[in-house]
Amino acid sequence: MLLDVGRFIRKSIRETFSMAVLVAAFFAALGAAAPSAGQGGAPAGAPQTQPQPTATPPAASATATQNVTPAQAGLNIVVLDPAHGGTDLGARGTGGIHESDIVLEFAAQVRTALEAQGFQVVQTRQGNANPSFDDRSAMANAQRGAIFVTLHIASTGTPGTARVYVMNDMAAGVDATGLIPWDRAQAPFVSLSRKLGDNVQALLAQRFKGSPAAVQTASVRQLRTTAAPAIAVEISSVTVEDRTQLDHMVPGIADAIARGAAAFRPSYVLPANPGERP
């Protein structure tokens, strides 16, 4: 009897030990699957990068785990360019209207409308400065997931109308290193720029009678060196006798740009690897 009891005790100990090992292994596996505390999001204001799939709970099937794929990054930034500035006053009207001053003031309302659509806005100038064309392009080219919008007041055209311009078709080309030359940076984006421009122009045509229904093409210096969808929005004109005529147009201009950009957003899916063409 004593021998049988001893055998029973030893057997119970072995079974208890085995169960403890299995339980410890299970919790160790749970700990390995849990994300660490350092895997938080990017700081506010930082350009968004490709998000990583969340860890699948242990109870999920293997099939569900295989179906989790990273999402593509897309449009989230608008680089807003109030044209001219500094000693470059732009177009000037007989009533003392200076294009550089007006577009800077108008940019504030355009920015508010864009932010209401969920965009992060980067302005090429905040005050009476005059960044170079290359400086303005460089600000857009430094962003990932951006479009470029430059604001102008025309010296001609029917007052109360607005037009959107994109670059003429540009033949894509590369230099000896296989890179796109700086002055042809817009070439891979011309079709996307036209689509963005058509979105905005259609809304402007609805709001401002006499505005064209489709985007216009021109060789706009600010657009040529921009490696992103890029448009120029031009309001007519500095020849108005009363500046309030232009001021009354701004809410409609801002709304068209913001809504046009929001409608364009699904069309602009960035490649998974930076440096690839869209």
Sum up the structure in keywords.
6-stranded mixed beta sheet; globular; alpha/beta; 278 residues; Aminopeptidase; 2 domains
Write a structural description.
The chain has eight helices and six strands, in the order ααβαβαββαβαβαα. With 278 residues, it is an alpha/beta fold. The protein folds into two domains: 2-42; 57-267, Zn-dependent exopeptidases (Aminopeptidase), CATH 3.40.630.40. The protein is globular. It starts with a helix and ends in a 14-residue tail after the last helix. Mean pLDDT is 79; it is low at 1-72.
At a glance:
This protein is 38% helix and 11% strand. It is of the alpha/beta class and 278 residues long.
How do the SSEs run, as a string of H and E?
HHEHEHEEHEHEHH
Largest sheet, order of strands side by side? 2-1-3-6-4-5
Task: Calculate the mean pLDDT score and round it.
Answer: 79
Cα end-to-end separation: 83 Å
Number of domains: 2
Form type? globular
CATH fourth-tier homologous superfamily of the largest domain: Zn-dependent exopeptidases
Number of extended strands = 6
